[in-house]
Write a structure and sequence with these properties.
alpha/beta; Leucine-rich repeat, LRR (right-handed beta-alpha superhelix); 7-stranded mixed beta sheet; 5-stranded mixed beta sheet; 12 helices; 21 strands; globular
């Protein structure tokens, strides 16, 4: 739709005297479409009309250099009055430039930013819009500054070594390529480069973007907690151990076809992560998605290749699906509703701190005779009365090392 608006502007500018006239011409077309939408029992005209309105808002913002402020205000007045109808289109297409116009015209306020803007943007997986709104809400970046920063990111040379070194710290690997060791910027939507100058980047290093990295000053870690979306450039082959661990605002990650490995705890604790593309060729290590509850299925389970990484449901009595082979690190972290849990015989590995903070949990049944149980698996399970295991089994021995409530059956 934005391409259509640009094409129409190009055609009509030669015949109309001012940019304002061009926008008025498009608004007339839009109004006609909306009228058709009201008269004909079909949503097609209305949907096209509102999409065109949203695109006009974005176009007005882009055309700042050719349109005076007074003209922009007059042109967008009608469109802004249709905010409730336009916003779903804006978020569906992640039209961040349209939000700049809303903000400039005072349509985003402290009272409505969450309910009318930020929450719908998150629900629509509109990562660019979400990033802008979080910046606006924090008050750390003004509307104009955010606009300039996004425009700079869109237009700058991605291979400019000087700019890249201001944002990224790196170190050389044995094969001569680079790994990212830290991010020094403040953006909430970032692209991890596959080249810095002439050097090729092949790896995101251990704890590179983790706010929890040991020894990382709070001032450097705090911006990492506000990262909403990450795009990993083609050419990067590996995400290191705990690379994004604790990125509590991370919603979306775009993974390239070149990626071959996601290391231990790479995204552990990214509780809002709801969108990531994973191919079958990627090697995923233990705990890579531990406690990533937003990725769970409709039953509340996050299961990747027979490994249970998280549970986001509210059941009191729960049975893990048969076929699950491992319960990962902190998979049931703070599942405070859970009272009784059954693990089928297919489960052969229970990760460290798997049931951490299950304060209402009273009993667990582990059906496997050969299940390994990691350290502190039952830590802070204050009401735990019994862990039922096969008598004389390897599982019994492991559980006894972690808990005194063993009940052989």
């Amino acid at each position: 739709m934005r391409k259509i608006v640009k094409w129409l502007l190009k055609k009509v500018k030669g015949h109309l005297s001012t940019p304002l006239s061009c926008y008025i011409f498009l608004l007339i077309i839009t109004i006609i479409l909306l009228v058709f939408g009201l008269c004909i029992p079909s949503d097609v005209f209305k949907n096209v009309g509102y999409s065109l309105l949203a695109s006009i808002i974005a176009a007005v913002f882009i055309d700042i250099g050719n349109t005076k402020a007074a003209h922009r205000e007059e042109t967008t007045k009608f469109a802004l009055s249709k905010k409730k109808k336009i916003l779903p289109v804006v978020f569906k297409n992640d039209m961040v430039l349209a939000l700049h116009t809303f903000a400039e015209n005072g349509k985003i306020t402290k009272k409505n930013v969450d309910d009318e803007f930020l929450n719908p943007a998150i629900n629509a997986n509109a990562t660019q819009c979400t990033a802008f709104l979080m910046d606006w809400k924090s008050g750390k970046v003004s509307t104009k500054d955010a606009a300039k920063r996004i425009e700079h990111e869109l237009n700058k040379d991605p291979l400019n070594a000087t700019d890249m070194k201001k944002l990224w710290s790196t170190q050389k690997l044995k094969d001569g390529t680079l790994e990212i060791t830290s991010y020094k910027g403040n953006d909430t939507a970032i692209t991890i480069p596959s080249r810095i100058g002439k050097d090729v980047v092949t790896r995101i290093g251990d704890s590179a973007l983790s706010p929890l990295k040991k020894g990382r000053p709070q001032a450097q870690g705090e911006p990492l907690t506000r990262i909403v979306s990450v795009e990993i450039s083609e050419g990067i082959a590996e995400i290191g151990r705990e690379a994004f661990s604790g990125c509590s605002s991370l919603v979306s990650v775009s993974v390239p076809e070149s990626l071959k490995r996601i290391d231990y705890l790479a995204f552990a604790g990214c509780s809002l992560l709801s969108k990531i593309n994973l191919s079958d060729s990627i090697e995923i290590y233990n705990g890579a998605f531990s406690a990533c509850k937003a990725l769970a299925d409709t039953n509340g389970f996050l299961i990747i290749r027979n490994a249970l990484y998280a549970y986001a449901g509210r059941e009191k009595v729960l049975e893990i699906p048969n076929g699950v082979k491992s319960v990962q690190y902190r998979a049931f972290l703070d599942c405070t509703d859970l009272v009784s849990l059954f693990l089928p015989s297919s489960v052969g590995n229970i990760g460290a701190e798997a049931f951490e903070g299950c304060t209402a949990l009273e009993e667990i049944t582990i059906a496997s005779e050969h299940a390994f149980v990691g350290g502190n698996a039952f830590h802070n399970c204050k009401k735990l009365k019994a862990v039922y295991v096969p008598k004389g089994s390897t599982t019994e021995n492991y559980v006894k090392q972690q808990c005194k409530k063993v009940k052989p059956i």
